[in-house]
Amino acid sequence: MTSPQGAGLRGRALRLTVFLGESDRWEHRPLSTEIVHRAHTAGLAGATVFRGVEGYGASSVVHTARLLSLSEDLPVTVVIVDTEERVRAFLPLLGAVTGERLVTLEPVEVPRLGPAPEGGA
Prior knowledge:
With 121 residues, the chain is an alpha+beta fold. 21% of the residues lie in helices and 33% in strands. A four-stranded antiparallel beta sheet has the order 4-7-1-8, with helices on one face. It has a two-stranded antiparallel ribbon with strand order 2-3. A two-stranded antiparallel sheet has the order 5-6. A hairpin with a 7-residue loop joins strand 5 and strand 6 (63-64). Helix 1 (31-41) runs antiparallel to helix 2. The chain starts with 10 loop residues before the first strand and ends in an 11-residue tail after the last strand.
């Protein structure tokens, strides 16, 4: 049985967030898919794509999933968490496909969860 991605990641880490639109493409496939595949190939601990229900960006056009105004370009974020060294090493690979899109980096802490070790707190 294999452990979940990121299971060995503990302590200080870096969260990389890429803000996209659902219609953003890289060579005829969703840009979010390309980013996840590049992160996986680079051996990063994990990547997740989140699809928003409403938002706007540089264009100032509000995109929404509300029934009366269905959008085909909802906001999408790709979140990657790994060590600072590994995330920063990934940035050139990411920049090759994202161009001028908004990318943020935030320090995070990955706690150890689960049962307390035997013999103490």
